[in-house]
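Hi V.,

You were right to ask for the full record rather than a summary. Here it is.
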Amino acid sequence: MTITVVTADLTRLALDAIVNAANPGLLGGGGVDGAIHRAAGPALLAACRALSEVTPGVRCPTGEARITPGFKLPARYVIHTVGPIWHGGHAGEAALLASCYRACIALAVAHDLQGIGFPAISCGVYGYPPEQAASVAITALRDVPAAHPALDVQLCCFDQRMAAIWQHALNQA
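Predicted structure:
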């Protein structure tokens, strides 16, 4: 598996899949989630609504992932994952964040995908400190068994400041 940091608009990556930092209902929202839903078009919302709720209002619990088509996106699929809300780092956030990355990779492998783009999961409105999130993410990705050595993982950052944080974590791993 190759891991690279890119500065780009996640919704414009022409990979097999992009990851949506979603909310548990998978019904769109702000930030990355809203941008992906807007770029994919209304069919994405319909596909998300078609996914079964595991509890009322929850289609994807924190730390898990679900997959839908990408519709109008250049990516063939959207892998939706729900990151943890930051509560100071003592509420299991690191384990849940690592689980997000592992669950997304597992879906990529199960669907025989070659390329996947990740945003900085939980680093927006969920408040996870980017330096800590980057370290958790890189460690989780590096710990994934080499079941799919040809997988191209792109850590997509929206600006140079965030890209520098993620590149530093990648270089330290």
